[in-house]
Write a structure and sequence with these properties.
By secondary structure, the chain is α/β, with parallel strands linked by helices. The protein folds into two domains: 2-80 and 377-417, Urease, subunit C, domain 1; 86-369, Metal-dependent hydrolases (TIM Barrel). The chain is 35% helix and 21% strand. The chain has helices at residues 95-102, 107-112, 117-126, 129-145, 161-177, 200-217, 235-247, 264-270, 284-290, 301-307, 314-319, 340-351, 355-362, 364-369, 398-401; strands spanning 3-12, 33-42, 45-51, 68-71, 76-79, 81-83, 148-154, 181-189, 223-228, 251-256, 275-278, 296-299, 325-326, 387-390, 408-413, 416-417. The strands form two sheets. Strands 1, 2, 3, 4, 5, 14, 15 and 16 form an eight-stranded mixed β-sheet that branches. Strands 6-7-8-9-10-11-12-13 form an eight-stranded parallel β-sheet. α6 (200-217) packs parallel to α7 (235-247). It is globular and about 70 Å long. Bound molecules: N-(iminomethyl)-L-glutamic acid and fe (iii) ion. The site of fe (iii) ion has 5 residues, from loops. N-(iminomethyl)-L-glutamic acid is lined by residues 87, 116-117, 120, 227, 255, 258, 303, 329, 331-334.
Length: 419
């Protein structure tokens, strides 16, 4: 099925000529658009686009009676969001801890009491693969309806070889069946399981000697992640695990500097991580380490908001010349939402990003942070046709401004109208 969109009020985040793999510093406020545009999708790929005033239907390749034409007057078209950091495969929910948090307990205190990640670990162990798959599937449907077209999903609630493999196998099934572009990340080092309390080194050894080789043998993960932070894994332990993963071709994407100046950012850069994520504690040394590197600093404002944490110094990071991406961190403990429109609003309100910068952060730059910026993240000829049509909206700025409501009307994934 081919699709022709006409009378698009504004076609947003287009690329013509040289394509960028990400935008950094001042360039983050560049957002290319066309007013009153058309766009033609053929065989799942963006075939061509341009201004209505130069539109000549007879010049389109293979246009025929089977082409669906949509008049998008008053509506804008965006590339779908790339959500480069989620833990959306989990069992149930953790609203009891949410109440503990409201009453004043910190994330670390909840974790120390066996709550937090270990709570989800226990539940995941008891859940069947089918139940986990169905719960995750419903979350995928929801995020699609809010404009997400690509998502990274981590393991990390297994924390035994068997349960980590179980998670990754479910993610593989989601990959096979979902219209979303999905990347999977092995996060055995999300927390130290109860059985290894006081024996952290042994758990790290288990990850290195058993989990990583088995994950690689079944080709279950694209990336490797470590929660490198105060109270979790040290930079030295992180280095050991990243080196072990990289031997099997797993590129790092790590959790860093959420709870302290943990050294995680520096370790990530040292090992060529695709991204370092969270970054609430980012100072001059961390900015220096990131500048000129290939590592995408990735912000997760949903977690900072939900946990009432300090916000990463994003203005300073961009003004220093860095690129930034934003993702939802969708998980049951620190960000139980995968709504990227809300993330866009938070980026503007809490990080003082301009709407253009925030849009780059949730499309092109987050596509880079999950290794898909060659095929997604912008409207460019030859890229995958993953895009959404908005409801009638007055301006681009309205997207982050009108926080909390769904401005997405229809979603097209792989060139098919999905929702
Ligand atoms: O990214 N920081 C570590 N992990 C998750 C939280 C996971 C959970 O609490 O279940 C995060 O915020
Ligand atoms: Fe996370």
């Amino acid at each position: 099925m081919n699709i022709l969109l006409t009378n698009i009020k504004k076609l947003v985040q287009i690329e013509t000529g040289e394509t960028k793999i990400f935008r950094a510093g001042k360039e983050m406020s560049e957002l290319h658009t066309i007013n009153n545009a058309w766009l033609y999708i053929r065989n799942g790929i963006i075939d061509s686009f341009g201004e209505m005033k130069n539109f000549d239907k007879s010049k389109l390749n293979n246009i025929d009676n089977f082409t669906t034409e949509i008049d998008t007057s008053g509506r804008m078209v965006f590339p779908t969001f790339c959500d480069s950091h989620t833990h959306l495969l989990y069992d149930g929910s953790r609203e009891i801890e949410y109440i503990d948090k409201i009453k004043g307990l910190s994330y670390e205190e909840i974790a120390k009491r066996g709550g937090g990640i270990l709570n989800s670990t226990k539940r995941l162990h008891e859940a069947s693969e089918e139940s986990l798959y169905n719960q995750a599937w419903a979350r995928l449907e929801e995020i699609i309806s809010m404009g997400t077209g690509a998502v990274e999903i981590k393991s990390g609630y297994g924390l035994t070889t068997e349960d980590e493999l179980k998670m990754l196998r479910v993610i593989r099934k989601l990959k096979e069946n979902s219209p979303l572009t999905i990347k999977s990340t092995f996060l055995g080092a999300h927390a130290v399981p109860l059985e290894y309390k006081g024996k952290q080194k042994e758990y790290v050894d288990l990850i290195i000697n058993e989990m990583i080789p088995m994950v690689a043998a079944e080709d279950l993960a694209d990336y490797i992640d470590v929660f490198c932070d105060k109270g979790f894994f040290t930079p030295l332990e992180t280095e050991r695990m990243l080196m072990a993963g990289m031997k099997y071709g797993l590129k790092p994407k790590i959790h860093a500097n959420e709870l302290d100046y943990s050294g995680g950012i520096q370790v990530g850069v040292k090992y060529g991580a695709l991204s370092v994520d969270h970054l609430e504690y980012t100072g001059d040394d961390e900015i220096k380490a990131l500048l000129g590197s290939e590592t995408m600093p990735t912000l997760l404002p949903g977690a900072a908001f939900f946990l009432g944490m300090v916000y990463a110094p994003v203005r300073k990071m961009i003004d220093s010349g860095l690129p930034v991406a934003m993702a939802s961190d969708f998980n049951p403990g620190s960000s139980p939402s995968g709504n990227m429109q809300l993330i866009l609003s938070m980026g503007c309100i809490k990080y003082k990003m301009l709407p253009e910068e925030a849009i780059n952060a949730v499309t092109l730059n987050s596509a880079y942070a999950m290794g898909v910026s060659d095929i997604l993240g912008t409207i460019a000829v030859g890229k995958k046709a993953n895009l959404f049509i908005t409801k009638p909206i007055p301006s681009i700025e309205f997207m982050p401004y009108s926080f909390g409501s769904n401005k997405v009307d229809r979603v097209i994934l792989n060139g098919k109208i999905y929702a």
